[in-house]
Amino acid sequence: MISNSIKIKNGALPDHPGVYFYFDKDNQLLYVGKATSLKSRVGSYFSSKRLDPRIAEMVSHIVRIEYIETPSVLEALVLEANQIKAKKPKYNILQRDDKSYLYLCITNEDFPRPVFYRGHELERFGVKPFDKELSAEAKKKFLRIFGPYTSGVSLKRALELVRPMFPWSICQPGAKRACFDYQLKKCPGVCVGAISKRDYRHIIKQLIQFFDGKKSVVVREMTKEMNVASRDLRFEDAAILSKKIFALEHIRDVALLTKEDYALPVEKLSTDVIDLDGRIEAYDNSNISGASPVASMTVFLDGKPAKHLYRKFKIKTVVGANDVASMEEVIRRRLARLGTKGWERPEVMIIDGGEPQVNRVQEVLDELALDIPIIGIAKGFDRKQDRFVFDRTNKDLARAAVRGKEIFQRVRDEAHRFAITFHRKKRSEAFLSRKK
């Protein structure tokens, strides 16, 4: 705990992950933030000459700083969200429209699963930003809602990081064969009846406890379960629990280190919903009057083409020229491979098309409970200027669309080029086949 900013310059803060709290002279909490390094992050507020005016105003009122050190960045992320929700600090709320914050929601189903919603999306379930208790209407839909989270990218990476420890299913019961996530040990096998509702709910309970900031409780419970399994000679179960306990106690959260952890505290302190250095995918269809319909997927990593990840699709289920249905087929086939090597989760999907294509892709994502941002790029009315199509109520996505316009256009252009090249090849093969 620190009493004033002078001590910050003398290195009083630890060089470890944690959450910091700023107070004014009236002991009112001004701001809560997380840090990869408390020393570096907090110190940047007082050493930078590039502060946004609103942040500079906040800094001028700081007379006391407190902090909580955490074992990992992931636990700092969890603690920050819980503290913001509990204490509603003035500048956390003012910093951005609270309706654009991202929330982690656990669905209220036979086999619950985590999903993402923005504040403005939760309003239709009777949930208000920063609500501590769920309304009766919201309880019909969700078991718990966590957030707000100031970094959408970090939250999504955090959830992927803990999934091996708390595996959940996005599949449905009654499948003929196990989903791919089951083979990767990310799904406990709801699809093929490999787990009971009771045992599955126990996993979800532990996931909820973890995001409640009760990791130590989860570790204690797992340790007891491991000891019981060992006593009952269920050594395979005991070994699995031992690995989970070790993973929880030695969280490797390098993936959570985003640019926001090192950036100066300017107005856009929070990471945008899209990491432009991450995996960006674009899709395009190509056909002539419905003949030889094909599609392409291109991928950019670190802002550059990753041609070894490009993919071609032959349209199999659509008859005639139907770009919307063809796009749906391609997206479904792509998402069926989600998580396999070469088919990792994208930061954003760029769709060559307008509202009809974007709306259909969004329907597929909603059906699969996947929160992947999508942006359509349609030709403008004069056919010369691109028109971006996306959910304009999502301010994070709007900022990303402006900031990433050039790279999104480039990855779309690559998809267009790749699709046309593939289509010409198919037409040529069809022509030569007819001649024979």
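(the above was protein one; protein two follows)
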Amino acid sequence: MNDNKIASGEPILVTGGAGYIGSHVVRDLGEHGYRPVVFDNLSSGRAEAVLYGELVRADIADTELLGSVIRRHGIKSVMHFAAYIVVNESVAQPLKYYENNSFNCLRLLKCCLENGVENFIFSSSAAVYGMPGKVPVNELAPLLPINPYGGSKLVSEMLLRDAAAADPRFRYVALRYFNAAGADRQARIGQDYRQPTHLMTLALKTALGQFPRLEVFGTDYPTPDGTAIRDYIHVDDLAGAHLLALEFLKDGGTSSAFNCGYGIGHSVLDVVAAAKRVSGIDFKVVHAARRLGDPAALVADAGAIRRELGWAPKVPHLDDIVASAWAWEKKLAARRP
């Protein structure tokens, strides 16, 4: 528990709030007067990343404790981040992903409905679209995931949809992330995984000499430079979308799904070039085969979240995203020589 940074405002339960995206949302909740109650087993998150509120170290599978926390704090709003996120791992271990991402969401949802939770914000993914026929992709596109990670997120969205249809008191927003990147612009928190998989993080760690080379997976995609294209969104802008979604639901907004991205695609080689440009280091890059389950291009049509929630990005430029991640990675490196 971080006693010196517990606000007196409305309590918000944040599952997975010690992880990368969750911790940035917890930061914003605390800075906006909410009282985060973080429920995290710390399998990939870190206690020191929880800048505000109370940290309950536990697993969602412990539904007895989960229910008691909801009742004790009088929780009416939940933000759910806890999930496995590595696409190629999901292809190799699909049941692991459905067990944690889908079944644990079911456990949490059931506990929420039994204890009077009214608002639920879900950390979903653009992976629910699979390989969309049209890019940028909007929320009306077919949901046809091509890997178990995306499938597990879609199952959770279906659970939320059906629960909301059955109970008029319960409403949700599913935020479909494209590629979260960057770090807190004061370098207080950022990605800190034991085994990083995000491209930008790996590139910058390679620049720092922590890896001998950066592997680029797939150079034969049907894209201008042959590498996969993604829509990179700064984690601060993503965090801001969660607070707007919370306000939307509290103001009576209807259950909805929104894309979270900038509508700007950058290839893997674009990100590599930006990492070299920002760091000033020309690190080694090697080409490797495509990874299983990776689509060629995913770029958001984010018109709906701009119209409905009034969301306006603050850090849309790739070099600025990389610069924030670079400051964080240098801080981590200095901390752990």
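Reviewer note on protein two: The two ends are 28 Å apart (CA to CA).
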